[in-house]
Amino acid sequence: MHALIINGSPRVKKYSNTDKILGKITEGMKESGSSYEQFEISDRSQWDSIRERFYCVDHILIALPLYVECIPGLLMEFLETIEPIAKARPADAASTASRSAADGSETVSRPKLSFLLQSGFAEGIQLRCGEAYLEKLAGMLGCEYGGTLVKGDNFSIRLFEDEQREKIVGKYAEMGRIYGRDGAFTDEACKKFTGPEVFPFPIRLLIGLMFKTLAKKSFNDMAKKWGCTKPLTDRPYGK
User: Fold this and answer.
1) What are the DSSP calls for 116-139, one per residue?
2) Which of 59, 150, 179, 204 lies 20 to 30 Å (CA to CA) from residue 32?
3) Which of 14, 20, 85 is nearest to 43 (CA)?
4) Do residues 26 and 58 make contact, with C-beta atoms less than 8 angstroms apart?
5) Structure letter (DSSP) for residue 95
6) Contact 194, 148 (CB under 8 A)
7) Considering only CA atoms, which of 2, 140, 118, 131 is closest in space to residue 60?
8) Hey, what long-range contacts does 218-227 have (CB within 8 A, 24 or more apart)?
9) What is the pLDDT along the chain (239 residues), one digit of tens a residue?
10) Res 32: pLDDT
11) Contact (Cβ atoms closer than 8 angstroms) between residue 145 and residue 186
12) What are the structural domains of the chain?
């Protein structure tokens, strides 16, 4: 199987958690004997190439972060330039996906479009709204839906190095092997990969306390390191 992979993160590769995850996904794909080509939405100079390849492959994987239940605006801007497959792709554009209708005429082939939806939110329920939209998006683009790999708790990936980062992203290699084998994320293992849908009440209380204390201090220290001169609680437009 060969797949077109689109990194839908607006962040450049160096700061993209999605890119770090895709590194493990593609590692697993190669182990399963699959090949791929990867492009970055953050690099507008690649947009023409992405569009060109979008209409010529049988498998497409779009990986993206979910920001407070919103798909990145840069990715949405790009997707608005994509013509649905039925309008833009001739029946013989792809090597294997074209089919014949009952009357013997050729029909437009439909590639399988899958998604990887990742977020800093740890509970699966936080990503279900985005997942439901992506399923509709596949149809709007004229593609067959190949499922969505949903996984949260990824906020700290780019903050860690080596072994610490590997503990978070290493598990994605198995998902890459499954995608390379099936060309989709419909396997039961992919559904279980999400983790807890909702944390038990005691854990939610503990997490809330951590965010008000340790996490708050950590975020403030991080902001200072990045050059922020105002407190994170500052509301300049509310004054």
Assistant:
1) EEE-S--SGGGGHHHHHHHHHHHH
2) 150
3) 14
4) no
5) S
6) no
7) 2
8) 222/159
9) 999 999 999 999 888 999 999 999 999 999 999 999 999 999 999 999 999 999 999 999 999 999 876 889 999 999 999 999 876 555 544 444 444 444 444 445 789 999 999 999 889 999 999 999 999 999 999 999 999 999 999 988 988 888 999 999 999 999 999 999 999 999 999 999 999 999 888 888 887 888 788 888 888 898 999 899 988 888 888 76
10) 97
11) no
12) 2-198 (3.40.50.360), 199-239 (no CATH)
Q: Which helix (H) or strand (E) holds 68?
A: none
- How many C-alpha atoms does 223 have within 13 Å on its Cβ side? 13
Angle between helices 17-31 and 172-182 (to 10 degrees): 50
- Calculate Rg over the CA atoms of the chain: 20
The H or E element spanning position 15 is: none
Q: For residue 104, is it left (φ>0), alpha (ψ between -120 and 50) or beta? A: left
Helix ranges, the chain (H): 17-31, 47-54, 73-79, 85-88, 128-140, 162-169, 172-182, 188-192, 201-212, 214-225
Q: How many CB atoms lie within 10 A of CB 184?
A: 20
Beta bridge partners of 116: 63, 149
- Quote the tokens at residue 74: 């840069």
Q: Which residues pair with 7 in a beta bridge?
A: 40, 63
